[in-house]
Structure formats: structure tokens, C-alpha cells
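New to this. Explain the following:
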Amino acid sequence: EVQLVESGGGLVQSGGSLRLSCEASGFRFSYYYMTWVRQVPGKDLEWVSTISSGGRTTYYTDSVKGRFTISRDNAKNTLYLQLNSLRTADTAMYFCFQGDWRYLNDDARRSGYRGQGTQVTVSS
């Protein structure tokens, strides 16, 4: 059974930092691209960042480039997202997702594996 468990969220002031983690189990983690997405209540899931299976290639949505860093440790089956220079607009529930979100259709995104999420709240 695929399991993805996020942690590391919290309340932080604008300009602050957090490090999110996603522990994966139930599948060959090192074989998969992995993605972070986020969601604000009432809005659709928003793609944030994707990392290749080996960790050498990373992709970011424009609004987080230069502030967020995605990484992974395949020996630990863990995905990370370092969030720096946080803004109030970054407030959302953050989810890790198995696969490359960018190339999936809506059905695949809905049915794909993701964790329960971790809340990031940035205060001004």
C-alpha cells in the first residue's frame, strides 16, 4: 500500500523558513518523480515543484523560484521542501504527490497518490 506522510508545517512569520518532509512507503520511491502541490481552501490544487527520480533535476512554479528548494533522499525514502522567504501568499496545505504532476491529466491528478498534507501558515 502506497503511503505518503507529510510533516514540518506550522505557523511562521513572513520572511521565515520551514522545511517540509514526506516519508514514502509501499513503492519503489527511487523509481518515481515526486511532486509538491498546495491548496488553499476553496481553490484547486496548485503545482509547486517536481524532482526527478534521481534528484538531479528540479522544477518550480514561477512564484517560488529562488525561495523554495525541493530535494530527496532515496536511501531514506523521503522527499523534502525547504521553504525560505515565506510570504502570506504561501499559506496553504502542502501535499506530496507520487509522480510528475505537470504531465498528468485531471483524472490522473485526482486519482494519484498523495498524503494527508501539512499546513503552512504565514503571518504578516
In short: Strands lie at 3-7, 10-13, 18-25, 34-39, 46-51, 58-60, 68-73, 78-83, 92-98, 118-123. The CA atoms of residues 101 and 109 lie 7 Å apart.
